């Protein structure tokens, strides 16, 4: 069978070096962004950076010193609002984390009645493994580490985004190319910090735990699964809470501002405008960062757990065991090279080059990563090895595992491009939705829903092909590394994803600061490209969630000692039906939460327009703080019920009905949740870009529907408003639902297998 070419020493060296290189590159990008100054010399800055700031010459001579000072003030208000919200949210999450950590320890410790004696291993009964209480303790520690890393990832992303938004606005004075580079570099800071931190913390955790576990790799990597659970549980609340915050403000600002008062987007007279811009950072940046970190952590944990009971684990081949981490290390290096193509090699000179440049990032990273996967597979795997496959051993060759990772990587690209086709206004589906606005909002809604349903077809086939190929080649381990392949270019994916909200904020700051229309046109062009790439990012996240969830499901079934999942048995079929219902219940909760919060926001914005004299004339300032408070209070209150649904379902089902019913729930939620998530995200994205298609008026057909304020445009705004919670709250949160339920079930599998199914034992 042989061993890997790469030695354990080199493996132990290369992984942390790649992580440190990623962190160093992120800091370099931040340094380059920080060279853009946001307040004039001699004006004190209150944004926490204590810099002596300088104004670049304005090429048009239109936007003077006062507008630049205004940019700094707005940036400060957005940063303070976002920081305040996240700190408040993290206080709630801190209480939850401590309570849930206690539950993990108590439940897993009770498997062997808190015994401190060694026990026979789960898969190799002839060997002795560490006691269950050790697994309980180390699972709890890894859960806390995952939660902390997830929170830090989201918070750092938010701080970077609020640091970069006004800088992007000011760079837009010099041209769209300069603004693009600033926004993209800022996104790269977040992407590389998250990818590198996630890898480094996981690597350190494995090595520290190994000191205690020694040769008990089965127990070691079972304890590591808590890392994925911690990351995803924080991501759930971050996505739901941030999504409710941003969409409550967005819906309130759009309905009253655009439709009732007929004022532009991000107009400073709109009381909800600051809350809207804060929401972009807490939802689309912090929430998304935690979400993708959770996907990365879970896919790594799933692969490590399955590998630990394969020939890698039995022979204690550390290099082969760390194959998932080496893939991620290669991904950081590939993304570093890819980023240089956008920032240093190909210069953006015109608006039409923005979107192709972002899409080129996806293609370059995918092609380079394919080569990187081949190198890692050749050097880090034995030529032949065995993988545990539901009680039997499957012989696998290293080239087969290469194809598993590669098929996941390329399936992600296919999903990304199909998502772009259905959500970009450059193609016929969105243009048809825009044309449907001629006859009002009802036909717009009908066309948008139809588009969302249709957009599910190709991504599901791509996921199905990836599952079939990877499972055929390497069983459940193949699916786990296919998910990792889809996420291997996470640094580039996050850079592209974060670029969108940064550009959106930059446009809002330009509008509020009163800058001339040319600068707003440039930031709008950046934002339009960002909308499409954000939809691509959501497609990646949902596709990877399906593969991750299936891999975790396989690990759960193995750990719970289920030999087969028979859908003809009543225990399983009731679980399937209930599991398929859960995404709808969850979506109902999140949609209603946005609606309730938006209702309060609309009433407050209307009240201010009615009761503040001179607000519409621009002679009086709106009360931004009240709108920020409405969004904050609503999101913190409303994120609890959906979060409780997801976190409690596996515990209740596992304890009362047992592991077979729980396996049905997980399968049902996976199959249903992926479809609903893709449909919701693409429907919302299409409505958003249909509105922007009309507003831009770039073609004769678009100009016939416009201008802003026309009946067709108002119909498009209504569609966009309906789509906001679909694409930014319910849709993105669903991928966390299916992953989180699966990883939670895996962590608690020993408890469910020992004490679960109370009702069926009566």
Summary of the model, kept short:
This protein is an all-alpha fold and 762 residues long. It has 24 helices and 4 strands.
Structural overview:
Helices cover 79% and strands 2% of the residues. With 762 residues, the chain is mostly helical. It has one domain. It has a two-stranded antiparallel sheet with strand order 1-2. A two-stranded antiparallel ribbon has the order 3-4. Strand 3 and strand 4 form a beta hairpin. It is globular. It starts with 7 loop residues before the first helix and ends with a helix. The relative contact order is 0.13. One of its GO terms (cellular component) is endomembrane system. It is found in: Endomembrane system. GO terms for molecular function: diphosphate hydrolysis-driven proton transmembrane transporter activity; inorganic diphosphate phosphatase activity.
């Amino acid at each position: 069978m042989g061993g890997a070419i790469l030695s354990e020493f080199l493996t132990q060296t290369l992984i942390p070096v790649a992580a440190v290189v990623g962190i160093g590159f992120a800091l370099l990008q931040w340094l380059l962004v920080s060279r853009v100054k946001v307040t004039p010399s001699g004006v004190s800055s209150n944004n926490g950076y204590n810099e002596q700031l300088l104004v670049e010459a304005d090429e048009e001579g239109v936007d003077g010193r006062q507008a630049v000072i205004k940019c700094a003030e707005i940036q400060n208000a957005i940063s303070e609002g976002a920081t305040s919200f996240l700190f408040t949210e993290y206080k709630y999450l801190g209480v939850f984390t401590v309570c849930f950590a206690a539950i993990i320890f108590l439940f897993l410790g009770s498997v062997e009645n808190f015994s401190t004696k060694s026990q026979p291993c789960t898969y190799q009964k002839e060997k002795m493994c560490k006691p269950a209480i050790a697994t309980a303790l180390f699972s709890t520690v890894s859960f806390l580490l995952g939660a902390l890393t997830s929170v830090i990832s989201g918070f750092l992303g938010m701080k970077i985004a609020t640091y970069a938004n006004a800088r992007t606005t000011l760079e837009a004075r010099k041209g769209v190319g300069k603004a693009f580079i600033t926004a993209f570099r800022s996104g790269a800071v977040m992407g590389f910090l998250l990818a590198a931190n996630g890898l480094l913390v996981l690597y350190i955790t494995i090595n520290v735990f190994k000191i205690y576990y020694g040769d008990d790799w089965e127990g070691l990597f079972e304890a590591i699964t808590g890392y994925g659970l911690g990351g995803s549980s924080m991501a759930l609340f971050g996505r739901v809470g941030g999504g409710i915050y941003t969409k409550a403000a967005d819906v309130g600002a759009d309905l009253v501002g655009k439709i009732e008062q007929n004022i532009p987007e991000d107009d400073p007279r709109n009381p909800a405008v600051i809350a809207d811009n804060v929401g972009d950072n807490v939802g689309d940046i912090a929430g998304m960062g935690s979400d993708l970190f959770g996907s990365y952590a879970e896919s790594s944990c799933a692969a490590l757990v399955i590998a630990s009971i394969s020939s890698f684990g039995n022979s204690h081949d550390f290099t082969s065991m760390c194959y998932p981490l080496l893939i991620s290390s290669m991904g950081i290096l590939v993304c570093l090279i890819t980023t240089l193509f956008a920032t240093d090699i190909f210069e953006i000179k015109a608006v039409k080059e923005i979107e192709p440049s972002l899409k080129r990032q996806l293609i370059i990273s995918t092609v380079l990563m394919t080569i990187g996967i081949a190198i890692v597979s050749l050097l880090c795997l034995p030529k032949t090895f065995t993988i545990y496959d539901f009680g039997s051993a499957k012989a696998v060759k290293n080239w087969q595992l290469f194809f598993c990772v590669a098929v996941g990587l390329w399936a992600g690209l296919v999903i990304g491009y199909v998502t772009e086709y259905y959500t970009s206004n450059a193609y016929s589906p969105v243009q048809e939705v825009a044309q449907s606005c001629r006859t009002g909002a009802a036909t717009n809604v009908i066309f948008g829903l139809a588009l969302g349903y249709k957009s599910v077809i190709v991504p599901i086939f791509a996921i199905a092909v990836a599952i079939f190929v990877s499972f055929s080649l390497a069983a459940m381990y193949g699916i786990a590394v296919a998910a990792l392949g889809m996420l291997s270019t996470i640094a580039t994916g996050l850079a592209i994803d974060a670029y969108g909200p940064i550009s959106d904020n930059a446009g809002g700051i330009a509008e509020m600061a009163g800058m001339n229309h040319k600068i707003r046109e440039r930031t709008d062009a950046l934002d339009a490209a960002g909308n499409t790439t954000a939809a691509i990012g959501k497609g990646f996240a949902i596709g990877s969630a399906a593969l991750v969830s299936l891999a975790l499901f396989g690990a759960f079934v193995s750990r719970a000692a289920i030999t087969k999942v028979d859908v003809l048995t009543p225990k399983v079929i009731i679980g399937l039906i209930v599991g398929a219902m859960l995404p709808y219940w969850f979506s109902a909760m999140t949609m209603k939460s946005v609606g309730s919060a938006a209702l309060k926001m609309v009433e407050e914005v209307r009240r201010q327009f009615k009761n503040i004299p001179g607000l519409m004339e621009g002679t009086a300032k709106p009360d931004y703080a009240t709108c920020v408070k409405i969004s904050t209070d609503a999101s913190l209150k409303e994120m609890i019920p959906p979060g409780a649904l997801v976190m409690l379902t596996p515990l209740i089902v596992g304890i009362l009905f047992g592991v077979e019913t729980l396996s049905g729930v997980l399968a049902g939620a996976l199959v249903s949740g992926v479809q609903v998530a893709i449909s919701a995200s693409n429907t919302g994205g299409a409505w958003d870009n249909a509105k922007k298609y009309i507003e831009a008026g770039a073609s004769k057909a678009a100009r016939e529907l416009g201008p802003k304020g026309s009946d067709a445009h108002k119909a498009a705004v209504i569609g966009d408003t309906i789509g906001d919670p679909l694409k930014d709250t319910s849709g993105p949160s669903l991928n966390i639902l299916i992953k989180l339920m699966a990883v939670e079930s895996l962590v608690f599998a020993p408890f469910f297998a020992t004490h679960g199914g109370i009702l069926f034992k009566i």
